[in-house]
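// run 5 | inverse folding | seed 20
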């Protein structure tokens, strides 16, 4: 491999995602979820479920809540091995993400059921994130279903053009990339109205721009659209 060929290989350098409250973009599609976060600790149940598409802002909102409450994060796949005797010893708030992917696993559901009951006894709170509303989950433990279906849930909906524009600017900014209004205006009428697709588009455009040693321009975005279309 020649030196010139090596220079054309895009390197996947890590980038810092901004998760502060000031970085969260409030719009009609997510305003209700923000209001529920702000309502804490006056939640009517031990748990709150925020659901929405991939990259819709669920994780970002959970970090906003974590900053406010000092909540600890427990990966869903680690919950069944958690030390329940000490879980609420210091922090009265817990975050578990992507819960619906683990519903149907009896061990996980048993652990979550135990955690919910402990939170109720300790007057603690659990923030759960998921891709869908809990009434559609395939529970194996009926008592967990009854508790979670009685808990409040709030959706983050698909973005409108104003929010899409802000999301595009933020995602490119997270990658230290400047983006012009002309590029934004090119993307908006052509893109899918989903957070997941927008995230993929930005990632692909970044990779193409890096490999070609160019800024993110309309031709780069056009190539990103074409590349993603071949995969779908």
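// decoded
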């Amino acid at each position: 491999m020649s030196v010139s060929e090596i220079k054309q290989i895009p390197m996947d350098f890590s980038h810092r995602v901004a998760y502060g409250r000031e970085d969260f973009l409030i719009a009609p599609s997510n305003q209700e979820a923000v209001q529920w976060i702000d309502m804490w600790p006056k939640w009517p149940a031990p748990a709150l479920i925020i659901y929405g598409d991939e990259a819709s802002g669920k994780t970002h909102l959970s970090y906003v809540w974590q900053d406010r409450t000092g909540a600890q994060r427990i990966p869903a796949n680690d919950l069944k091995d958690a030390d329940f005797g000490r879980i609420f010893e210091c922090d009265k708030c817990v975050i578990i993400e992507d819960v619906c992917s683990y519903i149907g696993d009896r061990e996980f559901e048993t652990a979550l059921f135990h955690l919910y009951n402990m939170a109720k006894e300790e007057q603690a709170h659990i923030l759960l994130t998921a891709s869908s509303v809990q009434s559609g989950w395939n529970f194996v433990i009926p008592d967990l279903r009854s508790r979670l279906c009685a808990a409040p849930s709030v959706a983050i909906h698909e973005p409108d053009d104003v929010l899409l524009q802000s999301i595009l600017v933020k995602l490119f900014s997270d990658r230290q990339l400047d983006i012009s209004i002309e590029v934004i205006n090119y993307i908006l009428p052509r893109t899918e109205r989903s957070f997941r697709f927008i995230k993929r588009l930005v990632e692909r455009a970044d990779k193409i721009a890096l490999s070609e040693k160019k800024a993110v321009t309309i031709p780069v975005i056009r190539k990103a659209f074409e590349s993603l279309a071949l995969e779908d």
